[in-house]
Amino acid sequence: MTTRDITEAEFEQVLTENEIVLVDFWAEWCGPCKRFAPVYDQVSADHEDVVFGKVDTEAQPGLAAAANITSIPTLMAFRDKILVFAQPGAINASQLEDLVTQVKALDMDEVREKIAQNQNEG
């Protein structure tokens, strides 16, 4: 699957309609973002079952603010609408492949259980 631009208006729908969604928050003026883009595109081609979204923080400032983006690029991974990974900074292709593999392998019942435990403790 190729990467796709995601707007604030469709963000929730993309998360709802897809099991796994990776989101690259970027901007045109950002050098590291431009260097990461081909890596992101390359890895996306190997994972038809994963949505690789891109959010232009300049065009979608409300979405960037809602996601608490303070540094770009920032990569987030969602599974079943749950944020399971968030990290600023560009990563290489093997690291991105590893991330996708880890997200696919997550036991989501276990993740939900840990979230519930944390909410009960807090």
Per DSSP E runs of 2 or more residues, the count of β-strands stands at: 5
Unreliable sequence segments: none
CATH architecture: 3-Layer(aba) Sandwich
Q: CATH topology, anyone? A: Glutaredoxin
Structural class: alpha/beta
Distance between the termini: 39 Å
Strand coverage percent: 15-25%
Strand order of the largest sheet: 1-3-2-4-5
Mean pLDDT: 95
Number of helices: 5
Report helical residue fraction. 40-55%
For the CA atoms, what is the radius of gyration?
14 Å
- The CATH top-level class label: Alpha Beta
Spatial shape: globular
Describe the main β-sheet briefly.
Answer: 5 strands, mixed
What count of domains describes the coordinates? Answer: 1
For CATH, the homologous superfamily is named as Glutaredoxin
What is the H-and-E element order? EHEHEHEEHH
Structural account:
The chain is of the alpha/beta class. It is built from five helices and five strands. The protein has one domain: Glutaredoxin, CATH 3.40.30. The N and C termini lie far apart (39 Å). Helices cover 47% and strands 23% of the residues.
Which key phrases capture this entry?
Thioredoxin_CS; alpha/beta; redox-active center; 122 residues; protein-disulfide reductase activity; Thioredoxin; Thioredoxin_domain; Glutaredoxin; globular
